[in-house]
Q: What sequence folds into this?
């Protein structure tokens, strides 16, 4: 199985989502995500930021949106459009500040194109994406209505290298 065919399944409390990766466009981000997944970093974390029609965000070890793995990955902006199902890395103001937090687009977000590193796309689990994105939310950090009332848990991320 080539890098292009490597897949990862995010098993959540709401169902599963399976992704394939853009190793040719964002090799550093693909390698980082897969290594963290294989090390169990994402297991038992939550989707801490959920905005229906925009995206669902997870990968923070603290569940607050402020945590990371203790290192960052250099940006690999590419020509991938941020549309429904795209897997991309969250970051702070510094373009090279991505670490472990990722998001899955629930709708089209063209304003993110060229600003965030898209590194994969969902190939299964559309219904799960909808369930998570449409979770009831409350005001979270910064006053944004994006914090799920009932935590949506990442049970495990499994990598299939063939």
A:
């Amino acid at each position: 199985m080539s890098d292009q065919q490597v897949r990862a399944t995010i098993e959540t409390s709401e169902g599963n989502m399976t992704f394939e990766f853009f190793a040719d466009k964002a090799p550093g981000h693909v390698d980082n995500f897969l290594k963290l997944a294989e090390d169990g970093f994402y297991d038992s974390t939550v989707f801490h930021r959920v905005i229906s029609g925009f995206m669902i965000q997870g990968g923070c070890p603290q569940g607050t949106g402020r945590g990371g793995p203790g290192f960052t990955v250099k940006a690999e902006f590419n020509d991938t459009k941020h549309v429904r199902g795209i897997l991309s890395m969250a970051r702070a103001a510094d373009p090279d500040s991505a670490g472990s937090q990722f998001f899955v687009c629930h709708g089209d977000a063209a304003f993110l194109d060229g600003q965030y590193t898209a590194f994969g796309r969902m190939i299964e689990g559309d219904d799960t994406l909808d369930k998570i994105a449409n979770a009831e939310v409350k005001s979270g950090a910064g006053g944004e209505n994006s914090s799920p009332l009932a935590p949506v848990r990442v049970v495990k991320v499994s990598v299939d290298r063939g």
Summary: The helical segments are 27-38, 126-133. Residues 53 and 107 are 5 Å apart (CA to CA).
